[in-house]
């Protein structure tokens, strides 16, 4: 079909023949759904049927006509005539503007109508240009472009051939219009699918951000979404510190998006993509590394990838931070991708504000919760008392668990543990009332049952709501030589568990009735005598009703833990083990508050820590070593043991870090000071012993046991029922100097 014609071929002779050819071409065009292919099909059919030398199909692109199909033109014709401004007077543009067939039978006619084309070499001498017309709105015609057909020799045009060409052009125009509609429909469908996918991703992000209650969780969730949803090589989230005039990086994922490390600050006034996005409250898009180096030379290094996009975190008209994204290749994003990132940034701004408010609310709740618990415990002569309290960390409200230890009279002490109904302020008011009612009643009444009776009456009198109640276990303790006499009364609370020095373990007391439900509660006193080495553990339902990942309970957890407590373990260790077991059973994420109260009679084989002891349970996360160092340093300085401060904190940090990295459970920390030594114990839920490694001077870890060998007076590892304890001792200076 690309061979120039050697003879003039006219349109088929009869009307029937012409109609058959037109219908055949129309069927061919009907099978085409692509604009360029439809144009090529039309040009090829016209050249073949009329033995034309050349053919061009132009489409209207708004301000110009553009070739979409060409056959048989002179070399370079597509480049020379490929894009024609509509306001230039040429045969093709005139046919489009006037929406009329333009016939140029020879060069003389062309030069007469278009003098500026005189002498211009063309592949053809005779031309016909037909506008590609389709029906428009309200009967008006739309012109899609033009079909230009040329013959090597002059070419007169009779009515039959003209009608034949117009019919072919009409079917071609309809095919092109269908192809445009088809392409528009496909583009709209793809756009709708992309929009739906982005909405789905934003909804998923929104759901995940709703579950993120602190800044760290918000940051991790947002950065993971950006990398997954947008295919980013890296991302970082920054927050404005107005007081210091800086952008502080909250976190990063993937390859670096700006120089420095997490926590590094960027001055808001300094030129950087992130600070510019914040100051202007508008996205900053850098297509590639070259543009980044040209616009922000100070930030050209230290950033991997090519394209960089920074969008502000805007909330209530203020830029609160920036979301920075780096792409592995050049940035070719369109409006859709940029709008999606801006929507993600807006969600992050809202989530960070929620997290800030949540953390503040949780701090207020924690402060109020601490005010409802005793600031310090009184010393019970000849007895050990240890407590543990862990509120649900993800909840920003006051819980209902409480405990108290107080002096009733000379030689008598009250110990109480309980759980009130509800959460928040109502629980706080009921907790305060319960605690102080028990204290007051204990000084007036003769026994624990009478004390709980007074508390029951107080709850009923104060209760405007039917569901206000409390479960309580109360001890009246009288220390005696070598032990203690205990009167116990339980009102609907989990029964305490007694561990005898000989190893026997079991619950004690009578369950009784929860308080605040009936005018006269069904509660009774039970007397217990504790001897040397005996331990009595009280706890709330956060221990006995703990659920694992499958939702199953471990009803035997307290008794199982106490069975595994070694002989000579003091009250602190018993409380430590109970708390850690409840946490580990729930994979470190308790669903309810946990309170533990342990009363123990020392035995002759116990170590004597004359200067004092302290204990702390750590979450087993990256913050644990720093918290452990602060606790050990504060304890040693408070007891005048500054001389061993540096070595003790170093060794503590190494051992706690080892537990965090390898055990991945809650970590128990206990510090003891005797007359001549300091002992630090670090317990975790893994039974694997630490492994000594050869020292690598380039390594940043793995040196803990080597340091223990070189710096500790003595150290060892003790297997426990649910893990291990690594302990070390240091020689301490005398108490007087």
TrEMBL record:
Domain of life of the source: Bacteria
Domain GAF: 34-186, 214-362
InterPro entries on file: Bact_Sigma-Reg, GAF, GAF-like_dom_sf, HATPase_C_sf, HATPase_dom, PPM-type-like_dom_sf, PPM-type_phosphatase-like_dom
Single Gene Ontology MF annotation: phosphatase activity
Pfam family, one: SpoIIE
Keywords, ordered alphabetically: Hydrolase
Gene3D superfamilies: 3.30.450.40, Histidine kinase-like ATPase, C-terminal domain (3.30.565.10), PPM-type phosphatase domain (3.60.40.10)
Residue ranges of every copy of the PPM-type phosphatase domain listed in the record: 380-601
Nucleotide-binding as UniProt keyword: no
Protein name (record): GAF domain-containing protein
Organism: Vallicoccus soli
Lineage, uppermost ranks: Bacteria, Bacillati, Actinomycetota, Actinomycetes, Motilibacterales
């Amino acid at each position: 079909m690309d061979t120039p014609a050697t003879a003039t071929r006219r349109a088929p002779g009869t009307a029937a023949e012409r109609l058959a050819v037109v219908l055949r071409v129309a069927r061919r065009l009907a099978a085409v759904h692509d604009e360029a292919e439809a144009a090529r099909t039309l040009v090829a059919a016209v050249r073949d049927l009329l033995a034309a030398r050349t053919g061009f199909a132009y489409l209207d692109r708004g301000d110009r006509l553009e070739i979409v199909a060409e056959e048989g033109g002179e070399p370079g014709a597509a480049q020379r005539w490929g894009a024609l401004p509509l306001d230039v007077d040429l045969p093709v543009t005139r046919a489009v503007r006037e929406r009329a067939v333009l016939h140029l039978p020879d060069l003389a006619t062309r030069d007469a109508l278009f003098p500026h084309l005189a002498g211009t070499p063309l592949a053809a001498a005779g031309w016909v240009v037909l506008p590609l017309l389709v029906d428009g709105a309200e009967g008006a015609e739309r012109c899609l472009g033009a079909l230009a057909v040329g013959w090597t020799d002059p070419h007169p045009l009779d009515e039959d051939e003209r009608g034949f060409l117009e019919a072919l052009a009409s079917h071609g125009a309809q095919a092109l219009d269908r192809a445009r509609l088809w392409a528009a429909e496909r583009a709209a469908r793809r756009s709708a699918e992309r929009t739906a996918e982005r909405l789905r991703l934003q909804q998923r992000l929104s759901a995940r951000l709703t579950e993120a209650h602190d800044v760290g969780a918000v940051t991790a969730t947002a950065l993971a979404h950006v990398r997954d949803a947008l295919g980013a090589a890296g991302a970082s989230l920054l927050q404005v510190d107005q007081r210091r005039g800086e952008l502080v990086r909250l976190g990063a994922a993937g390859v670096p998006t700006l120089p420095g490390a997490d926590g590094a600050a960027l001055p808001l006034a300094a030129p950087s993509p992130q600070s510019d996005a914040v100051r202007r409250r508008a996205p900053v898009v850098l297509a590639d590394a070259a543009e980044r180096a040209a616009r922000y030379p100070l930030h050209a290094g230290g950033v991997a990838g090519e394209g960089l996009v920074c969008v502000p975190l805007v909330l209530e008209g203020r830029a609160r931070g920036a979301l920075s994204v780096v792409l592995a290749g050049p940035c070719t994003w369109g409006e859709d991708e940029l709008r999606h990132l801006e929507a993600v940034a807006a969600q992050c701004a809202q989530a960070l504000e929620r997290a800030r408010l949540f953390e503040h609310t949780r701090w207020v709740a924690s402060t109020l919760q601490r005010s409802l618990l005793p600031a310090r415990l009184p010393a019970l002569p000849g007895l050990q008392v240890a407590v543990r309290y862990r509120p649900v960390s993800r909840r920003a409200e006051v819980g209902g668990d409480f405990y108290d230890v107080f002096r009733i009279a000379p030689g008598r002490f009250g110990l109480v543990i309980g759980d009130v109904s509800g959460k928040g302020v109502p629980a706080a008011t009921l907790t305060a009332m319960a605690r102080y009612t028990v204290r007051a009643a204990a000084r007036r009444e003769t026994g624990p049952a009478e004390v709980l009776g007074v508390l029951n009456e107080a709850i009923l009198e104060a209760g405007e709501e039917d569901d206000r109640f409390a479960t309580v276990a109360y001890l009246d303790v009288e220390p005696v030589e070598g032990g203690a006499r205990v009167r116990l009364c339980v009102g609907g609370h989990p029964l305490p568990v007694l561990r005898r020095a000989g190893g026997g373990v079991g619950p004690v007391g009578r369950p009784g009735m929860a308080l605040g439900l009936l005018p006269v509660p069904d509660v009774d006193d039970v007397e217990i005598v504790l001897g040397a080495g005996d331990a009595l553990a009280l706890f709330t339902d956060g221990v006995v009703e703990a659920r694992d990942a499958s939702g199953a309970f471990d009803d035997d957890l307290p008794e199982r833990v106490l069975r595994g407590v070694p002989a000579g373990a003091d009250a602190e260790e018993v409380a430590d083990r109970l708390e850690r077991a409840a946490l580990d059973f729930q994979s470190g994420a308790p669903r309810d508050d946990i309170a533990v109260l342990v009363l123990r009679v020392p035995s002759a084989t116990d170590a004597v820590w004359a200067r004092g002891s302290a204990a702390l349970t750590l979450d087993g996360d990256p913050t644990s070593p720093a918290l452990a160092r602060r606790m050990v340093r504060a304890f040693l300085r408070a007891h005048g043991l500054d001389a061993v401060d540096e070595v003790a904190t170093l060794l503590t940090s190494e051992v706690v870090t080892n537990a965090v990295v390898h055990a991945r459970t809650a970590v128990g920390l206990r510090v003891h000071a005797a007359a001549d030594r300091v002992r630090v114990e670090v317990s975790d839920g893994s039974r694997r012993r630490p492994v000594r490694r050869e020292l690598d001077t380039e390594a940043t870890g793995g040196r803990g046991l080597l340091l223990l060998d070189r710096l500790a007076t003595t150290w060892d590892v003790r297997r426990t029922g649910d893990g291990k304890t690594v302990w070390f001792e240091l020689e301490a200076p005398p108490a007087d100097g």
